[in-house]
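Milestone 3.1: sequence recovery, worked example.
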């Protein structure tokens, strides 16, 4: 089966003071992840307190490269099929995301992917992944 990716409308993200730097960077085509300077661990999703040691966190530039950990093509959730996936970034964190710009049925666990950004309502850009 072949399911070619089609653009679909994306709602605007909910932006607050804790995640505003992430969305500002995404608008510039940059992927940020959370990092804890106290324990040295990266984390996703970014938050003001480290999920491991509860210290303050900072933003760190991610490479934008990763591997598909899990993927499923969703055909019945709306008029356009899409691939929802967990992607393990080179930095060790796993993001829930979409795989785009490819035959969705050809995506496999272990495939190498890279970040790209898709437009959402309000002029925001949402990070998603495409085959590397």
């Amino acid at each position: 089966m072949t399911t070619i990716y089609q653009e679909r409308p994306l709602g605007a993200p909910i932006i607050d003071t804790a995640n505003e730097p992430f969305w500002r960077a995404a608008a510039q085509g940059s992927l940020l992840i959370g990092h804890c300077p106290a324990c040295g661990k990266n984390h996703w999703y970014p938050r003001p307190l480290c999920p491991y040691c509860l210290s303050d966190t900072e933003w760190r530039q991610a490479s934008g490269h990763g591997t598909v950990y899990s993927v499923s093509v969703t055909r019945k959730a709306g008029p356009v099929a899409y691939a929802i996936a967990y992607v393990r970034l080179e930095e060790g964190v796993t993001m829930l995301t979409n795989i785009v710009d490819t035959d969705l049925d050809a995506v496999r666990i272990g495939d190498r992917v890279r970040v790209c950004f898709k437009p959402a309502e309000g002029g925001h850009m949402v990070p998603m992944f495409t085959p590397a």
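Strands lie at 32-35, 42-43, 58-61, 65-74, 82-89, 94-99, 112-119, 125-131. Helices lie at 20-27.
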